[in-house]
Amino acid sequence: MPPKSCTDAEFISIFEQHGPAETARRLKVSSRSVYGRRRTLENNIGRALVSPDNRTGRVAIEHPHRATLEIQNGTVLIGSDAHYWPGDPSTAHRAFVLMCKRLKPAAVIMNGDVLDAATISKHMPIGWEKRPKLIDEIETAKERLKEIFRAVPFKTRKIWTLGNHDARFETRLAHVAQEYALIHGVHLSDHFPDWDCAWSVFINDDVVVKHRFKSGIHAPHNNTMWAGRSIITGHLHSLKVQPITDYNGTRWGVDGGCIADVDHKAFVDYTEDNPKSWRSGFVVLSFRNGRLLWPELVSVFDKKHVEFRGEVIAC
User: Would you call 43 exposed, middle or buried from its count of C-beta atoms within 10 A (0-12, 13-18, 19+)?
Assistant: First the structure.
């Protein structure tokens, strides 16, 4: 059946009474279409459209830098800390593209630090280390993200949660050239139009994906304790799952590891050849009837293979 049309006032009423998933069902359109129209209307009317939290009877607070997903049955792939530099793609990147083709996810989230942005870092160069030009990093990131874009179904939601390295791009410009703020090209999102940018993603309102929160070796545990929700972060490159159970049930703190190789050239000098408890890989989330199953990890086995669900997979 063709999509059902409605006025802006009718759309607002349905959305704020029933939420995005029910709005999409009633209007016979995709969730992405609902979110797109919602953003347009918010800009037009000058306020946020909020959806009800059906489990508590409260109205959910919407934040301008928060993306939302509602997934009843489906898969989400989350890759963190790619630190893309010119050159051959990492093993984890090749595997990420492969799993996008195999699992046909409802959403793909690049969870921060897609760029390394070494040349505009606040940190001074170490010795005579060579760093790629920023334009070369951006062009490489475009190429790698295009490989992911082509590997997923058309309706797959693609979101980029900004990391501290990504933020260097606009931070540098804001510091030296504030008068360019409204000019196209000065925002990182201008260069990656196929991806929605946000600081965080809330899935079904009880799973949070963001680049970083707490720090240290106990970060996955502390993240979910403080968030009160299952939370998937990057930044620390450690690739682990920590379940937490209390009177509210079980939730998970997940560190997404890194898409970059752990011996990436970007890491060599500042780690000073110290041992690193880092792991290259990424996260697979599966939802059944809106409930998150135990988070799964895809980890690099060697330069040409990853391990996942008891199999060693060539990539």
Answer: exposed
